[in-house]
Amino acid sequence: MGMGMEKCCCFIPLRLGTFIIALWFFVIYLLDAVTGFLGVNAVIVYSGQSAKAWYYIDLLFTVLVCLGGLLGIVGSCFASRGFAKFFSVIIWINCGLSIVKYAVSLALMVVHREDLIRSCLRSGFVGFSNAQTPISSTVTISESPYYAPVKYPGTLNAHATDLEQCQYNVQSFLIVYGVVIFAIEILQIYFASVVSAYASRLRNGARHHRLHDQQIKDFEESRYHMSTVY
Questions:
Q1: What is the band of 144 on the pLDDT scale with cuts at 50, 70, 90?
Q2: Which of 101, 147, 146, 89 is nearest to 122 (CA)?
Q3: Model pTM?
Q4: Using CA atoms, how far apart are residues 170 and 168, in angstroms rounded to an integer?
Q5: Over 90: is that where the pLDDT of 175 sits?
Q6: Where would you tag: which of 125, 134, 184, 210 has the fewest CB atoms within 10 A of its CB?
Q7: Highest mean pLDDT (candidates 56-60, 154-158, 208-212)
Q8: pLDDT tens digits, one per residue of 46-64
Q9: What is the pLDDT at residue 181?
Q10: CB-count exposure of residue 121 (10 Å: 0-12, 13-18, 19+)
């Protein structure tokens, strides 16, 4: 896949494109991991709330993809054939991990949508101004249609939101998340094809040089034999 590719995005040289792609995986997933640890990443918090073990697995996947990007940065800087080949494998693994990470997270949040809404009722929607950690599904919140959240500054309830607003926030978040992640995965599969094309070019270039050197050696040997004959 991508073996005949000459440029990344039609105008970027493959080596530079590989560096940019490696930088993408490193920076984007580093931010994803950091915001997850800080409790301001809604995806990690809410999917982890739905399945506690997934909170740690999700973060682990994110860190692994980030490290894969770091290896790609090093390899593309030195134009190493071995490193480029290694990164071409790593980036496909990265794509696989990210697909699993995002697909499972989305599925968990859709299935446990009501838990997300209840969490929002108690603590508001997760964001940079409202850091949270996954809460237990056993947290008691009134089912009464007349329930209104009580906000206390400096507490978990400081950003509590009413039911209608929470339902709207959660539904909008799930729709936007699904669309954005689909687009990102398509883009990352293309990125993996670019890296594979770059690794293939380096490998084929090495074969060309070996063939060229062998032709020179054969020519010199033939000249030597001809000189001994005459």
A1: low
A2: 147
A3: 0.70
A4: 6
A5: yes
A6: 210
A7: 56-60
A8: 888 877 788 888 888 888 8
A9: 92
A10: buried
* Cα gap 67→25, rounded to integer Å: 8
Please, are residues 69 and 20 in contact by the beta-carbon 8 Å criterion? no
CA 17 – CA 71 distance, rounded (Å): 15
> What are the residue boundaries of the structural domains of the chain, listed by start?
10-135+151-229
List Cβ<8 Å contacts ≥24 apart for 132-137: 132/39, 132/40, 132/45, 132/156, 133/39, 133/45, 134/45, 134/46, 134/48, 134/49, 134/52, 134/55, 135/49, 137/49, 137/112
CA separation, residue 200 to residues 1, 71, 84, 206, 212 (Å): 10, 18, 9, 10, 18
The amino acid occupying position 31 is L
Q: How far apart are CA 76 and CA 85, in angstroms?
A: 11
CB 164 within 8 A of CB 145: no
**Closest to 89 (Cα-Cα) out of 107, 71, 101:** 71
Bridge partners (DSSP) listed for residue 8: 12
Angle, vertex CA 33, rays to CA 30 and CA 37, nearest 5: 140
Rg (CA), the chain: 26
Amino acid at 110: V
Mean confidence (pLDDT) of the chain: 76
Distance from C-alpha of 57 to C-alpha of 51, rounded to nearest angstrom: 10
